[in-house]
């Protein structure tokens, strides 16, 4: 039999995972067909004048996969390798993410094919404002609400909110989440992805009854999400023994001084060469004998090639699609408990939801209240997925997908088909 060695499209992988979930829930074919495609995909090409006076034409996207449960929701990614296929896959993932934690949104994703680090602040602002204008026909508090993702941040969200507001003639703070607190952002939004990952990891450890030792942790990725996750897990009493970034990784079995490591990274541009720790390659970090592994960097880090060498007991999949589909069964057979991406990294969008609610009601909550509400939503979702996983003998990813897909299918079905 000929083996197809073509790299699989990210959207095809997302569709396969949907099909598997649909199968275990006995979803009718009509229902599956409606969920397999994205609802809208907008591609825009637009010019930006660079600081040297030349004009560059960029390509951007906004894709809405499903809006049956509420407005479209999802981040904007600025990355040099961004494609429409990837944005479609990530938009579908957002639909499941919002459904699995039970917040009233559909799923969307967008972004621009650009390396944001290669632009000056002035160029980044012009690119952002023009891109926001191009996709403005889709955006709004009741329609589609963007947020930060890889390569974008609170400042970029402030520019987008300002651009939409200028077009509308008044401030529309609820059109975007992940904004700075000065312009309708929420307390706790910045740290919410790391906080969600931490709450879930602690629930996972409790379920696995790993309470007789100080659990050790390796975190791959020391960007915004990885760094705050490492710190929050350490604050919760776990021992962070390894941290890696795109260039290297460091390991100390007694635990790392994370504040000193952050300073070192700022000064040296990477974690490698940190005193009081041994250097490792980013791949070696994944194979360490730790209790918890948190891949918080990029997609496809754990594949059929390295999955059998992993030694962690629990993996919290912080980065979207960090585990390739061909690795799932290997990890399951090894008895490694996986908290899948749509559950593990939902903290960001849950607090985005709180931000949107606060903007709409113009009444803001204290950080403690936000964190308590986040804990409640995440823990409820964890146990709902766990029950399905135990009752139907599914791994946690399939259970999370199945729960989410069923909720969206129910919304489609109860609404019926127009006209
Ligand atoms: N980009 C984040 C994610 O993928 C946050 C999305 C949001 O807050 O809308 O979950």
UniProtKB/TrEMBL annotation:
<dbReference type="InterPro" id="IPR006097">
    <property type="entry name" value="Glu/Leu/Phe/Val/Trp_DH_dimer"/>
</dbReference>
<feature type="site" description="Important for catalysis">
    <location>
        <position position="149"/>
    </location>
</feature>
<dbReference type="InterPro" id="IPR006096">
    <property type="entry name" value="Glu/Leu/Phe/Val/Trp_DH_C"/>
</dbReference>
<comment type="similarity">
    <text>Belongs to the Glu/Leu/Phe/Val dehydrogenases family.</text>
</comment>
<dbReference type="InterPro" id="IPR036291">
    <property type="entry name" value="NAD(P)-bd_dom_sf"/>
</dbReference>
<protein>
    <recommendedName>
        <fullName>Glutamate dehydrogenase</fullName>
    </recommendedName>
</protein>
<dbReference type="InterPro" id="IPR046346">
    <property type="entry name" value="Aminoacid_DH-like_N_sf"/>
</dbReference>
<feature type="domain" description="Glutamate/phenylalanine/leucine/valine/L-tryptophan dehydrogenase C-terminal">
    <location>
        <begin position="186"/>
        <end position="416"/>
    </location>
</feature>
<dbReference type="InterPro" id="IPR014362">
    <property type="entry name" value="Glu_DH"/>
</dbReference>
<dbReference type="GO" id="GO:0006538">
    <property type="term" value="P:L-glutamate catabolic process"/>
</dbReference>
<dbReference type="Pfam" id="PF02812">
    <property type="entry name" value="ELFV_dehydrog_N"/>
</dbReference>
<dbReference type="InterPro" id="IPR033524">
    <property type="entry name" value="Glu/Leu/Phe/Val_DH_AS"/>
</dbReference>
<dbReference type="GO" id="GO:0004352">
    <property type="term" value="F:glutamate dehydrogenase (NAD+) activity"/>
</dbReference>
<feature type="active site" description="Proton donor">
    <location>
        <position position="109"/>
    </location>
</feature>
<dbReference type="InterPro" id="IPR033922">
    <property type="entry name" value="NAD_bind_Glu_DH"/>
</dbReference>
<keyword id="KW-0560">Oxidoreductase</keyword>
<dbReference type="Pfam" id="PF00208">
    <property type="entry name" value="ELFV_dehydrog"/>
</dbReference>
<dbReference type="InterPro" id="IPR006095">
    <property type="entry name" value="Glu/Leu/Phe/Val/Trp_DH"/>
</dbReference>
């Amino acid at each position: 039999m000929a083996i197809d060695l073509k790299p699989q499209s990210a959207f095809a992988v997302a569709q396969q995972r949907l099909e598997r979930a649909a199968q275990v829930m006995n979803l009718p074919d009509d229902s599956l067909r409606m969920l397999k495609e994205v609802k809208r995909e907008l591609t825009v090409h637009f010019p930006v004048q660079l600081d040297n006076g030349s004009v560059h034409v960029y390509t951007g996207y906004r894709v809405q996969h499903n809006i049956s449960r509420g407005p479209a929701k999802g981040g904007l990614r600025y990355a040099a390798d961004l494609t429409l296929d990837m944005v479609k896959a990530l938009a579908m993932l957002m639909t499941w993410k919002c459904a699995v934690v039970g917040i009233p949104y559909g799923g969307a994703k967008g972004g621009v094919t650009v390396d944001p680090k290669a632009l000056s602040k002035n160029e980044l602002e012009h690119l952002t404002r023009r891109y926001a204008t191009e996709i403005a026909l889709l955006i709004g508090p009741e329609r589609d609400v963007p947020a930060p993702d890889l390569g974008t941040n609170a400042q970029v969200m402030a520019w987008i909110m300002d651009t939409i507001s200028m077009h509308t003639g008044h401030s529309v703070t609820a059109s975007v989440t992940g904004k700075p607190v000065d312009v309708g952002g929420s307390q706790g939004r910045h740290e919410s992805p790391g906080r969600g990952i931490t709450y879930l990891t602690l629930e996972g450890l409790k379920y696995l009854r790993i309470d007789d030792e100080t659990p050790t942790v390796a975190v791959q990725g020391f960007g915004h999400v990885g760094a705050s996750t490492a710190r929050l897990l350490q604050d919760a009493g776990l021992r962070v023994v390894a941290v890696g970034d795109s260039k290297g990784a460091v390991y100390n079995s007694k635990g790392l001084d994370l504040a000193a490591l952050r300073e070192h990274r700022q000064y040296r541009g990477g974690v490698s060469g940190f005193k009081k720790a041994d250097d490792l390659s980013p791949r070696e970090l994944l194979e360490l004998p730790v209790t918890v592994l948190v891949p918080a960097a990029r997609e496809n880090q754990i594949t059929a090639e390295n999955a059998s060498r992993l030694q962690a007991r629990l993996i919290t999949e912080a980065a979207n699609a960090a585990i390739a589909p061909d690795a799932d069964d290997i990890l399951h057979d090894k008895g490694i408990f996986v908290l899948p991406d749509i559950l593990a990294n939902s903290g960001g969008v849950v607090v985005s939801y709180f931000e949107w609610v606060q903007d709409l009601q113009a009444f803001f909550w204290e950080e403690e209240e936000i964190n308590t509400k986040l804990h409640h939503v995440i823990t409820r979702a964890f146990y709902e997925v766990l029950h399905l996983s135990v009752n139907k003998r599914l791994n946690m990813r399939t259970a999370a997908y199945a729960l989410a897909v069923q909720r969206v299918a129910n919304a489609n079905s109860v609404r019926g088909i127009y006209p």
